[in-house]
C-alpha cells in the first residue's frame, strides 16, 4: 500500500493488528506488518510516489517476494455532490488530469501528442468486490500535480472528466510503477475536502483518516481471498 504521508500510512496501519517492522528503501521507509500488507509513505505528488513505489516493487521482486497488488491510498478532494467529505472513493479509472499540452483549442492529453498513457484501469472484478465490501463509491479518480483551488478549475475538470469522483496527487504515479512491474493496482481514498475554491477551514482530515482506517478494515478480508490469476 502506497500512501503519500506518514499520517495516511499510519491510518491504514491501524486496520491491521500485526507488529510493524521498518526497512529502508532508496528515498523511503517501508513498514512491514506481520500477517498484513507492506505500507509505504511514498511522498506527495505523482513523481515521488512513482519513484518510491518502483523502489518498493523492485526490492520485493529482488527479494523473491514480488507483490500481487499495489494499492494507492490516502485522502482526496471530492467532486460535489457525488463524493461528499468523509466518503470513500475507489477508482475504476486512475487518470492523469494535467499530463499533456495546453493549446488554443484547449487541453490535449499526452496520448493526443503521441506518447504514453493517461489512464490505468484496476481489475474490474476486484473493484466490484472491494466496493461491495467497503461501501466505496466507484468512478474516475484524477491525479493532479496542482491542487484545484478555484470553481473555474473544478468546472473544467468536471467537463473533461464527467465520471470524476475525486482528485488526489499520487494515484497515477503509483499506477505507472505498478504497470511497469506488471502488477495490478487499486486506488482507495477518503474525501477530506471538496474540490473547488480553496478553503482550509472546510478540511476534515481527521474524519477522512478514520474513514480510511475503517475502509481498510473491510478491504483486508477481500484481499486475503483474492486470487490475481482469476482476473
Ligand atoms: O493548501 C491547499 O489549498 C491544499 C488544498 C488541498 C490539498 C493540499 C495538500 O497539501 C494535500 C495534498 C495531499 O492530500 C491529497 N489531497 C487531499 N485533498 C486534495 C485535493 O483536493 N486535491 C488534490 N490532492 C488532495 C493529495 O493526494 C496529497 O497527498 C493543500
TrEMBL record:
<keyword id="KW-0474">Menaquinone biosynthesis</keyword>
<dbReference type="Pfam" id="PF01048">
    <property type="entry name" value="PNP_UDP_1"/>
</dbReference>
<comment type="function">
    <text>Catalyzes the hydrolysis of futalosine (FL) to dehypoxanthine futalosine (DHFL) and hypoxanthine, a step in the biosynthesis of menaquinone (MK, vitamin K2).</text>
</comment>
<dbReference type="InterPro" id="IPR019963">
    <property type="entry name" value="FL_hydrolase_MqnB"/>
</dbReference>
<feature type="domain" description="Nucleoside phosphorylase">
    <location>
        <begin position="42"/>
        <end position="199"/>
    </location>
</feature>
<keyword id="KW-0326">Glycosidase</keyword>
<dbReference type="InterPro" id="IPR035994">
    <property type="entry name" value="Nucleoside_phosphorylase_sf"/>
</dbReference>
<dbReference type="GO" id="GO:0016798">
    <property type="term" value="F:hydrolase activity, acting on glycosyl bonds"/>
</dbReference>
<protein>
    <recommendedName>
        <fullName>Futalosine hydrolase</fullName>
        <ecNumber>3.2.2.26</ecNumber>
    </recommendedName>
</protein>
<comment type="similarity">
    <text>Belongs to the PNP/UDP phosphorylase family. Futalosine hydrolase subfamily.</text>
</comment>
<keyword id="KW-0378">Hydrolase</keyword>
<dbReference type="InterPro" id="IPR000845">
    <property type="entry name" value="Nucleoside_phosphorylase_d"/>
</dbReference>
<comment type="pathway">
    <text>Quinol/quinone metabolism; menaquinone biosynthesis.</text>
</comment>
